[in-house]
Each structure stands twice: as structure tokens, then as C-alpha cells.
Amino acid sequence: MLKALAIPVLLLAAAPASAPQDFGPATVETIDGALATQIDAEFRTALPTGVTGDVLLEQDGKITLKAGYGWANREKKIPYTTKTISQIGSITKQFTAMALISLWHDGKIDFTKPVKTYLPDAAEPVASLTLDQILTHRSGMPEYCGEDFDRQSKVLLLSKCAATPLAFPPGTKFQYSNPGFSIIAAIVEQVSGTPIDAYLKKRFFGPLDMHDTGYEFPSVSLDRFAVGYLDNKNQGIISETMKPLHGDAWNIIGNGGIQASTDDMYRWYQALSGGTEIPRDMRDMAIAQHAQREDDIAEGYGWVTRKAPDGHTVQVSHSGSDGTFFSYFCWRTDDHTFLYFVSNSGEKAATDLLKKMLVHLRDAGKMPVTKH
């Protein structure tokens, strides 16, 4: 008996210590200046804990940090870079809003008109909501109308979801609504006669060379995409998850679901902040302070804006998350600074890292940082 007891003790003593998990390398393409160095240091500190993703920082018209951290695909050991195509979550809403704004620019849309003007089959009470109320999250519509990947046709969106009772009289309060932006996408499709993905590619993504942005990527290798990881478990790639729905993904179309590379999001920022590809009246309409939320926070169309004491806009931003991927787009107009950050390793860890980045951004700039 004594000898038998000695066997597991010897085996235990001989067993090697488990190696720390390999979350991948830091792949820094550009780093220049104090703020870039601070943000890089924060990401490098977070990387061994499993926080992976990439970041791009521009200051005064110059890219000062462009880097990926860790694996975009852990199973295949594919490093994250700013060319990696990642899910952007609710940042999708700014593209949906801009699609509608382009139709307004063409004289085909009036934001003060009700939904039924453009979608005569929409059920009440949504049918009587104005486009402005939906775009500014003051419609009273619910935050969700089912799980993201429940099968939901456009017909069901306009019947079942549109018939959901409102939480408050339209225009009186703020309540974030995902199905509201699905309604906006349905209007874009109805008025343009084109599926929302094809419309965005023709009107914006193609002209801006944003070829790594969209809902569908039929000819792109899966190795280009970031895989999501939650609690270190593989959550897959959203476009692959949406494929079996064969278009009946209207719980997410318009409000989420788009994937993009960080390089493409930088091209989008350049177009918004002064490029010639997007007409000035469209840019101004998108980032205008359409509805006040807090003392210095207002809703744009697909954006959150922050105001200075004199009323001018000093920050345009939005975040996106499905719990696994987390993204953040921040344009600080007075500071002449742009920050884009995306992570594929869980919202909680990503937002903890973002808060540290934003402290450095605040300390380096002329103004405090708003809530993301």
C-alpha cells in the first residue's frame, strides 16, 4: 500500500508546469510620439491576458500608431494587422444612416416623414414614426426584436417587430434601438431598389477603395477574417454565421453585422473629415447635433456627438459590440485626432483596455474624453 501511494506522488513531481497560453505577437507597423507609445504599452500589457486586436491612431494628419496585437485566428496562428477584417458591431449604424442620407441628398427622402411614406406595408406603431425619431433613438422602439441570429425576414420585421408597442411617446425620451436601424435599412432598400450591402458598396465602399468592408465577402479567403473568442472559446466569423439564414437576418441587418478592416475604417474617417468623395451637406447631416441626450452629449444620425460649452461639436464617436468583438471609432475635431480600436476577445476586457487608452488620449488633448 505504501508503494502504491508513492506512484502518484512521483508522477506529480515529474509533471511539467503548464506553459502560459500563446496569444500571439505584437505587429507594430508605425509608432511615433508619446501618445502612440503609451497606447502601445497598454496593449502590450493586456496582450498576455488574452486581449487581442488592432489600433490606428492619427494626430494632426499623421498616422502615429498602426499596429496589431495577438492572433486574429488562434487556431491557424494568423497575426492581427490593420488589414484583418473584423466585425464592427453597431458602428454599422453609421453606414446605414449614411445610405439614407445619400437618398436625402438625391431628393428622395424627407427625415420628417413617417415610415409608412416609404414602407406602406409597415405595421403600426412604427409606421407612424418619423425617420428622425428612429435615427436619433427617440422612437420608443425596443432595443431588440429577438436574438441576432434568429431567422427574421424583412416581412416579419415590418409586421411583427413594427407592431411591438412603444416604450414611450415618440420624441420624448432616448432609448437605444437596434430594430429601428433595421427599419432604416429596409427603407434604403425600398427607395433605392437595391439590397443594402450592394447599395453601400456602390455608393461608398467602392469609390472609397473600402473593399474589405461589407456584409458579404464571396471571394475573400477566411484567413483574412478575425475569429471571435469569448472566454477563450471560438465564436466563429459573423458572415459565416449569417450565411445559413439566406438573407433572413433582419434582426441584425442595418444595425450590425458589417465587417471591416481597420485600414478601411481609416479611409472612412478620411472621407468624413475632409475628403471630396462624400458631399459636405451629407457629412454635416450625419454628424449634426440632432437630439440632445445629456448636457454635452447629442445624437447624430448613426453617431454620438459631444459639444463644447459654446455649442460646437468637439467629438464624433460610436462603439460596437456583440459581447465578443468590440470596436470604437473616435474623431476628436478640436484635437485633430482619430482613434480606431477593435478587439476579438470579449467586450469586458476590450473596454477595460479602451478606458486606459482614453485616459492617455484625454491627457494628450485639449478636451476631456466622452463616454464611449
Commentary on this structure:
By secondary structure, the protein is α+β, with helices and mostly antiparallel strands. It has a single domain, classed as Beta-lactamase (3-Layer(aba) Sandwich). Helices cover 33% and strands 19% of the residues. It has helices at 2-14, 34-46, 92-105, 131-135, 154-161, 178-192, 196-205, 238-242, 262-273, 280-287, 347-364; strands spanning 26-31, 53-59, 62-69, 71-73, 78-79, 85-87, 228-230, 233-236, 259-261, 291-292, 297-299, 304-307, 313-321, 326-332, 337-343. Strands 1-3-2-15-14-13-12-11-10 form a 9-stranded antiparallel β-sheet, with helices on both faces. Strand 13 (313-321) and strand 14 form a beta hairpin. Helix 2 (34-46) packs antiparallel against helix 11, helix 3 (92-105) packs across helix 7 and helix 5 (154-161) packs across helix 6. The radius of gyration is 22 Å and the shape is globular. The model is unreliable at 1-17 (pLDDT under 50).
CATH topological fold name: Beta-lactamase
Q: What would CATH call the homologous superfamily?
A: DD-peptidase/beta-lactamase superfamily
Based on Cα principal axes, name the global outline: globular
Helix fraction bin? 25-40%
N-to-C span: 64 Å
Strand order of the largest sheet: 1-3-2-15-14-13-12-11-10
Beta-strand content estimate:
15-25%
The top level CATH class name: Alpha Beta
Structural class: alpha+beta
What is the total number of structural domains? 1
Uncertain runs are 1-17
Radius of gyration from the alpha-carbon trace, in angstroms: 22 Å
Number of helices: 11
Written as H for each helix and E for each strand, in order along the chain, the element string is HEHEEEEEHHHHHEEHEHHEEEEEEH
Number of beta-strand segments: 15
Largest sheet, in brief, is: 9 strands, antiparallel
Q: Examine the secondary-structure arrangement and name the CATH architecture.
A: 3-Layer(aba) Sandwich
